[in-house]
Design brief:
The chain has helices at about 1-15, 20-30, 95-105, 110-120, 125-130, 140-150, 175-180, and strands at about 50, 55-60, 70, 85-95, 155-160. The protein folds into 4 domains: about 1-30; about 45-75, no CATH class; about 75-90 and about 160-180, no CATH class; about 95-150, lambda repressor-like DNA-binding domains (434 Repressor (Amino-terminal Domain)), CATH 1.10.260.40. The chain is built from 7 helices and 5 strands. The strands form 2 sheets. A 3-stranded antiparallel beta sheet has the order 2-1-3, with no helix packed on it. A two-stranded antiparallel sheet has the order 4-5. Helices cover about 40% and strands about 15% of the residues. With about 180 residues, it is α+β, with helices and mostly antiparallel strands.
């Protein structure tokens, strides 16, 4: 850094710049900055901490438009206790769904055909659901819940272990991670 300042002084003296304020500004900028200049274009001007594609860089005003300004007044880093574990809430079909559907249908005094017509499905689908041999889609479950006024989906919290090398910054798996398993 000192070498750069000395070089600028030499350059200014050797080219005999008459405007002394320009010389003072050049020396002030280089002595105030602890690095060469803008990390993108190299200009020695006032620099701003800028986040560009998840990387914080010291950039000049024109180059800082390629990212988002970062405030450096307070830096609070929240660290997860264990970044390789993730809590996930999933909706799961209740274990006794077949009995619930049959009992609710009979409680409303409906036949399988009538229930099938109300939810715009085939009678054979209702038979398979009530026998437990068919697992309905989420949209079909929602139709049954609304028509029969019962709850078939329950929310389950599940903790997922992520291998250390596969845990990303957000703790989420990528498609490639899923394909490897």
């Amino acid at each position: 850094m000192q070498a750069l300042t000395l070089y600028l002084k030499f350059l200014v003296l050797s080219t005999r710049i008459k405007n002394s304020t320009t010389t003072e500004k050049l020396i002030k900028i280089t002595s105030a900055q602890k690095h060469m200049g803008c990390e993108m274009c190299g200009k020695s001007v006032e620099l701003f901490n800028t986040n560009v594609e998840e990387v914080v860089m010291k950039l000049c005003r024109p180059c800082s438009r390629f990212g988002k300004a970062v405030r450096t007044q307070k830096k609070i880093i929240l660290q997860k206790k264990n970044p390789s574990r993730k809590m996930e809430v999933i909706e799961s079909l209740v274990p006794n769904a077949a009995k619930l559907v049959k009992n609710a249908r009979e409680g409303l005094g409906l036949k399988q055909v009538e229930l099938a017509k109300r939810i715009a499905e085939r009678e054979s689908i209702i038979q398979k659901i009530e026998s437990g041999s068919f697992r309905p889609s989420t949209s079909l479950i929602k139709k049954l819940e609304k028509t029969l006024k019962i709850t078939l989906l329950e929310k389950v919290k599940e903790e997922i272990d992520l291998p250390e090398e596969k845990a990303t910054k957000t703790g989420a798996l990528t498609i490639a991670d899923l394909m490897k398993n």
